[in-house]
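Entry:
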Amino acid sequence: MPMCSSTSEGCTGIVLRRLLPADAGLVSALEKRAFPTFWTEEQYARKLGLGLEGLGGTVGFGAFAGSEEECLLVGYVALGCAAGECEVENIAVDKAFRGRGIATALLRHALQEVRKMHTMVCYLEVAVGNAPARALYAGAGFRQTGLRRKYYRETGEDALVMMLEFQHWNS
């Protein structure tokens, strides 16, 4: 497994892999740069350590740029899964790496993996004003099923509820 640093010198390619509790600090640091509110390193370590065996838990996938010896976490997706359902909890890509298809690759990879676990449906909330994220999710096959008024406390912005039914999904 590659080691990961906080520098981007010498990055050569992107590798997707499952996140481990040891990656919690990297995930939390990226999330702090991406969102006004964020989960802590301790929260990520606990959530990623639960695994998906049994009743459910959180699974995460990271996009790493660099070589085998050293790499940089440039994006991640976290999904909560239980009882045949999952929810996209968070997805983020470092600003310096946006526009390269990393979010699309991460989301597609994560959905393929949770589908293998007999997941039937996946949900998410997305800010009404977040056009790039809405396009990402629509492109992956999610459709709008509802609206949560004033969902985001920081801004008071509404969120769309979106759903993907795996029986209709073409990966």
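The helical segments are 24-34, 41-50, 102-116, 131-139.
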